[in-house]
């Protein structure tokens, strides 16, 4: 996509005033009040006894983004690079959800890599395009950036934790506009949902030059033995990653430790979602026509109700 000269000029002048990176366009531009965020599907969970398709998106990620003022486009796995490129230039941001696929060999990974590389190129050219990774999405971003799987096993399968903020958190793009009392709740109360076996340890992050250069650590946690990174944002790109699950507090109801539905947990969810949607509002990609936009939106699909005790309440399936 070639940018008009005016946009490039705006991006360059914006850079003179925007202080810390990222310096990509968007800061002083008009916002897009009809943001559309892509959510990437993935191969079914191995334990899914009643699938209605061969890939899925948990409905909670859709509701999470919708609750903060975005519309959602599901992105299927197994598409061609050309198809992904077309979608990329139609949407305003991408969310990589949690899940349980092989983050080196899956179709989810293949698609994530294509979008990551398109997002790098776009942002470098002043076309602000945000990425968000949750849990598996966090892990996937770390593997793509490092070009290596540096994850390690931790005892964090179903536990709520308070965030241990780094000094960088307060002035981070992600957290800087969170209310003070909410930051206090996040730091003091066990409200972030952790449902993961794998983590990026602070040790491996620190020893990997690529990761260290790319991401700023905003919070850490520990399983009692290993310290791992729980929130990070890229220095020079609008890329964000949380190892915890902000979408679960308002939208998932499995009765397990690791879940919390308190006021502060639900507020934290909303503020993270609203932050990302606001990032997507700085992007101006659009579908080639209103009809194509309409056909791509999640409203064309019906989520399937999962049974009592399932980890997800509702799932969108795709073939
Ligand atoms: C994706 O392609 C693989 C083969 O490469 C196939 O096994 C799988 O069923 C496909 N999944 C979807 C959702 O199309
Ligand atoms: C560091 O990464 C390697 C994989 O490259 C992994 O085997 C190891 O467990 C990790 N160590 C820690 C402490 O994270
Ligand atoms: C609360 O968080 C602490 C770590 O700060 C952890 O040790 C503890 O297990 C957590 N409690 C619950 C109920 O998850
Ligand atoms: C949740 O699970 C606990 C036991 O693990 C049980 O005592 C409680 O009744 C359950 N609550 C609901 C609403 O199912
Ligand atoms: C959820 O977190 C709140 C703190 O905000 C705590 O008081 C409450 O006990 C937690 N509930 C559960 C079920 O862990």
TrEMBL record:
Residues of the active site: 135 (nucleophile), 245 (proton donor), 245
Domain of life: Eukaryota
Signal peptide segment: 1-25
GO biological process: tetrahydrofolylpolyglutamate metabolic process
Known EC number: 3.4.19.9
Keywords associated with the record: Hydrolase, Secreted, Signal
Subcellular location: Secreted, Extracellular space
Substrates-to-products reaction catalysed: (6S)-5,6,7,8-tetrahydrofolyl-(gamma-L-Glu)(n) + (n-1) H2O = (6S)-5,6,7,8-tetrahydrofolate + (n-1) L-glutamate
Record keyword Transit peptide present: no
A GO molecular-function descriptor: gamma-glutamyl-peptidase activity
Pfam entry (one): Peptidase_C26
The name this protein goes by in its record: folate gamma-glutamyl hydrolase
Origin species: Monopterus albus (Swamp eel)
């Amino acid at each position: 996509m070639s940018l008009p000269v005016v946009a490039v000029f705006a991006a360059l002048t914006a850079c003179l005033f925007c202080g810390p990176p990222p310096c990509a366009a968007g800061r002083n531009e008009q916002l897009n009040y009809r943001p559309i965020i892509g959510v990437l599907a993935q191969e079914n969970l191995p334990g899914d006894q009643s699938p209605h398709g061969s890939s899925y998106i948990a409905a909670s990620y859709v509701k999470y983004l919708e609750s903060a003022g975005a519309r959602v486009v599901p992105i299927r796995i197994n598409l061609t690079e050309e198809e992904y490129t077309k979608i990329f230039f139609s949407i305003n941001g991408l969310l990589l959800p949690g899940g349980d696929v092989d983050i080196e060999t899956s179709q989810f990974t293949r698609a994530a890599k294509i979008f990551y590389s398109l997002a790098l190129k776009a942002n470098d050219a002043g076309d602000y395009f945000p990425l968000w990774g949750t849990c598996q999405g966090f892990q996937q971003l770390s593997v793509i950036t490092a070009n290596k799987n540096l994850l390690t096993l931790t005892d964090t399968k179903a536990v709520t934790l308070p965030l241990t903020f780094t000094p960088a958190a307060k002035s981070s793009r992600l957290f800087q506009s969170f209310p003070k009392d909410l930051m206090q709740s996040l730091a003091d109360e066990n409200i972030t949902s952790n449902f993961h076996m794998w983590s990026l340890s602070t040790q491996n992050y620190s020893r990997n030059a690529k990761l260290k250069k790319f991401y700023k650590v905003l919070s850490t946690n520990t399983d009692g033995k290993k310290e791992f990174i729980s929130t990070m944002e890229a220095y020079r790109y609008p890329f964000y990653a949380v190892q915890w699950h902000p979408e679960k507090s308002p939208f998932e109801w499995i009765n397990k430790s690791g879940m919390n539905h308190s006021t502060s947990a639900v507020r934290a969810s909303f503020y993270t979602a609203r932050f990302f949607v606001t990032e997507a509002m700085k992007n101006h990609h659009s579908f080639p026509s209103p009809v194509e936009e309409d056909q791509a939106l999640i409203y064309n699909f019906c989520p399937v109700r999962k049974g009592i005790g399932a980890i997800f309440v509702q799932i969108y399936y795709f073939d």
